[in-house]
Amino acid sequence: MLTFTIRRLILSVPTLLFISLVIFLLLELAPGDPMAQVPLTVPPEVKEKMREALGLGEPMHIRFWKWLVQFFWIEPQVLIDYMFGTTFSEGDLRVISWQTRSPVMDIVIQRIPQTLWVVGTAYVVAIIIAMPIGIYSAYRQYSWFDQAGTFVSMVGFSIPPFFSGVLVIVIFSVQLGWFPSIYDTTHEVTDWASFKVQLQQMIMPVMVLALQITAQLSRFMRASMLDNLNQDYVRTARAKGLGERTVVLTHVLRNSMIPVVTVIALGVPSIFGGAIITEQVFKVNGIGQLLIGSIEANDLPMVQTLTFVFAVLIVMFNLIADVLYGILDPRIRYD
Amino acid sequence: MTDLSNSEPQTAPRSQWRDVWIQFRSHHGAMFGAIVLLLIVLGVYVGPWIWHVDPQFLPQGRDFINLRDTRPIYVALWEPDAKVNWAHPLGTDNLGRDTLARLLFGGQVSIAVGLTAMLLSLFLGTLVGVLAGYFRKADGPLMRLTDLFLALPLLPLILVASLLFRDPLAAVFGAEGGVFILIVALIGITSWMQTARIVRGDVLALKEREFVLAARSIGTTNTKLITRHMLPNILSPILVSATLGIATAIITESALSFLGFGFPPDFPTWGRLLNDGVDRLVSYPERSIWPGIMISLTVLSVNYLGDGLRDALDPRIRGR
Hints:
The complex is a heterodimer. Chain A is mostly helical. Chain A contains 13 helices and no strands. Chain A is 76% helix and 0% strand. Chain A is globular. By secondary structure, chain B is mostly helical. Chain B has helices at 2-5, 16-26, 28-50, 61-67, 99-134, 136-151, 154-164, 166-173, 175-189, 193-207, 210-217, 222-230, 235-258, 270-278, 286-313. In chain B, 70% of the residues lie in helices and 0% in strands. The chains are: A mainly alpha, B mainly alpha. At the A-B interface, helix 1, helix 5, helix 6, helix 10 and helix 11 of A face helix 6, helix 7, helix 13, helix 14 and helix 15 of B.
């Protein structure tokens, strides 16, 4: 199991390198100029100097290499320094935002918990809701519960998050006034009352984000359960006299989880895409909103880093899913 | 003996597509989806000939004050003093433009983007899938490429690219044409992976069949073998992913427009209209809700259509 995990970990390195190259080449073609805001009275040779100070003007491959070094060598050092009070990174140049003139990673670190918090909760909530629905609809195929589940998940799958978000704001914030329409990230949970406030402001973004995944997952869960329920081993288990609960929840469920885990992993890129939209709708100041803001401000280092952070998150979640896959299905481990 | 004399079959043999149609018709959701989708497409493309109002028309002077911010006519049912105007059944926006006309126009753009992007992604997916499945040497690299594309953060990349290439393309093809080409290309390039995987799997299975061997033994070239023998046999998964591709393309386009990275503001699409309405959501919820309903309804009907097609085209399910 450990070698399997390590092999997957090593395999993700070329993936990340490829992604960083794609992002870098994409931004390389950018027509935007960071000197566009500088007054016209500044002479051209000074502008050229400023451009060089920002690290532009060197050949492409050197800049790609420098960015890689900054991102994979210097930034981890900064993190170690921050955690243990050492001074590895002293004097090293970090990736600087053109917008705020401060290190990009500092801002990203400030913003990342909000995104992960909302996305993570949404994913967990979605899985918790989707699994029982899928299991029960498969167990009672073509019952009214199954029919209703099919319809609701089809609708849930079709309503895009930017519409469902707006819709719940109109209903629950404007008409009923139950929940706030803006997510307040400065809110701190200290006691029971503030926890309730936190719960109230989280419920709408999380549910909007969870709706789509729930719809998709419950369909896959149902299909996969149906495939397994008619297999011979299920009949054997029943013939041995095992209880219905053990048969369905232990034997069938474990085997049905294998394709579902793949779907959970493949859904990660789309949930981060959904998170960008949800953050925009509910004004959560996570990395999605930061990305939109920095694209609009033409802040290339920030955009580059953020897109890469998204890629790292996606690859990381895929890795977790792969490992889970290995735990669920021993055949995978020994290929 | 009399029975044997009547040996010729009286009715024509049932064709495959007739069977498909019979199965499709029995799927209520799919029929509902097909009819709703047909109605939406017809309404959006034929509607402007019946509803003659120009979506870009801006009333001037006193008309502007009178015509702006009218509510839909049904609001008068529960708010007797609401500002309604029978000439504008769905109301007008804050510049006095007719909402119904803008909805119809926006629908044309959204559906056109969805269809073209779907065709592009279908072409790319089929190409990659057939090449990977048919030529063993290409299989490894092409499938690794597919996996890499699946790991890309697609929405951030689309957002970045849509901003970077907007001006160069707009300079060549005009503001709207450039954005159209850009968005279609971006959606097409980032959504072919599922099709490629499905097509590759099917081609791999087909390649081992006897009829391919027979075709090869009479000297059929690779190109002919793919176009005459492979493609017709993988038509059904391609058709299914085509319908689902329309749904994703429409959602992605609307998401881009919603985030402000799509078409220019005076060129309405459903996502753009939704976004424009959000700022005045409390006073005029209908401005966001109608485009949203249109997007959701289109996507829902397309999804049901795809579901029904999948059942109808699968011979194992057909006839059950």
